[in-house]
Design a protein that fits this description.
Number of strands: 12
Largest sheet: 9 strands, mixed
CATH topology of the largest domain: Rossmann fold
Helix content: 40-55%
Structural class: alpha/beta
CATH class of the largest domain: Alpha Beta
CATH architecture of the largest domain: 3-Layer(aba) Sandwich
Order of helices and strands: HHHHHEHEHEHEHEHEHEHEHEHHHEHHEE
Length: 390
């Protein structure tokens, strides 16, 4: 089989049957290859597709020639292509009922290496992620990074949960794959261009889409994109989601593909946790009680870390030489109060600790500058989840 000819035929079929991949799969199964589809004469094509099929006129040599020119141009941009009948197509995705006919991939890694057998886990959720969701998204990815058998983190490169999962994975050396709802040459949203470029150039990472060049980020494209995220992974983790949302769709698709689904429980009155709580109530997902429990459920062995020092001892080691013990003790009280009430404001923090607003703001500023906490624009305080050293 001529590999480039087959790729060009797969690319042409992907353009023709992009929203109906099952039709393309049926044709390929019936005829043996994508190339054979384009060797059909008029009568044979009419017999298989029907004489009035809207796809009938696209099964022609011109479509293959146009696809071949497209692939040659993409190769100069470092964009690879694989298709349903080729050996470098993701095996797990091919098991799904509706896998895409072809995939465009931006990566510095060969496709054979990129799709070799390895654990792949989707981490998805709402764009409107809360501080609670962001903290747990980071905790989950960092916990996965602690495993000797490090998995690939897959998400959708969107705002909120997706980009948090991708950037945390890059930060701790985990490979990550972003599945896009646009053509392979563009990134949406544009603000994630830097993260996307880093993913495309990092070993083991990639940007993936089944949409041809020039495809705009329309809402329907994001919905179709979710099946690839679920299909590439043996497990999907939903961090936060409303009842209706892309994360929920990805989790439902994963369940329909007989893949494991996990969800982070949230407050009963939090709209951003309504989807997760519904999946848990419906027994579609398993609850994430702790990162240790999650890793155990995933069957991922962990490297046991040394027990972390209490905040008081750790801050004394960090600040003991520069500040009096009394000041370090006040910092410890601040940190303890923030741990107890995530999102507490500086004003409330001053009231809880009794230190006064000016002193509280001063000490909180020191903790923030050293990465212990984050203070947002509304003066709400959040403890940063620190990556443990091995």
């Amino acid at each position: 089989m001529d590999i480039f000819e087959e790729k060009a035929c797969l690319c042409a079929l992907n353009r023709t049957f992009g929203f109906e991949p099952r039709l393309a799969a049926a044709l390929i199964n019936d005829l043996g290859s994508a190339a054979e589809v384009f060797r059909l004469d008029g009568k044979e094509a009419d017999l298989l597709l029907g004489p009035y099929s809207r796809h009938r006129g696209k099964i022609c040599r011109q479509a293959v020639d146009e696809a071949a020119r497209e692939l040659e141009g993409l190769a100069f941009q470092g964009i690879q292509f694989t298709g349903w009948t080729l050996e470098d197509y993701p095996a797990l995705l091919k098991e799904c009922e509706d896998p895409p006919v072809g995939l465009y991939i931006r990566s510095g890694t060969s496709l054979q290496e990129l799709w070799k057998p390895r654990r792949r886990i989707a981490v998805v959720g709402t764009r409107d992620i809360s501080p609670y969701g962001r903290e747990w998204c980071r905790k989950i990815v960092l916990a996965l990074a602690s495993c000797p058998e490090q998995p690939v983190i897959v998400s959708g490169l969107a705002l909120g949960t997706d980009i948090c999962a991708h950037t945390t994975a890059l930060e701790c050396g985990l490979p990550t794959v972003g599945v896009m709802a646009t053509g392979p040459e563009s990134v949406y949203p544009y603000r994630h261009q830097a993260a996307a470029d880093r993913m495309a150039s990092t070993d083991g990472c990639a940007l993936v889409t089944d949409y041809p060049p020039g495809t705009a980020p329309l809402p329907i494209h994001f919905l179709r994109r979710n099946r690839i995220i679920a299909g590439l992974c043996e497990a999907t983790i939903l961090v936060e989601s409303k009842i209706k949302g892309g994360g929920m769709m990805t989790a439902r698709l994963a369940n329909s593909y007989c893949r494991d689904v996990y969800a982070l429980p949230g407050r009963a009155d939090d709209i951003r946790s309504a989807g997760c709580n519904y999946l848990l109530k419906s027994k579609i997902a398993e609850p994430i009680i702790s990162t240790e429990d999650l890793l155990d459920s995933l069957g991922l062995p962990v490297v046991r870390q040394k027990k972390a020092l209490p905040d008081g001892e750790r801050l004394m080691q960090k600040y003991g030489r520069g500040f009096p013990a009394e000041t370090v003790g006040r910092m410890t009280r601040l940190l303890s109060a923030i741990r107890k009430e995530r999102g507490i404001t500086l004003e409330d923090l001053a009231a809880v600790t009794g230190l006064g607003y000016a002193r509280t703001a001063e000490l909180a500023g020191i903790l923030e500058s050293d990465g212990e906490i984050t203070i947002d624009l509304l003066q709400r305080c959040h403890v940063n989840f620190m990556k443990k050293k091995p």
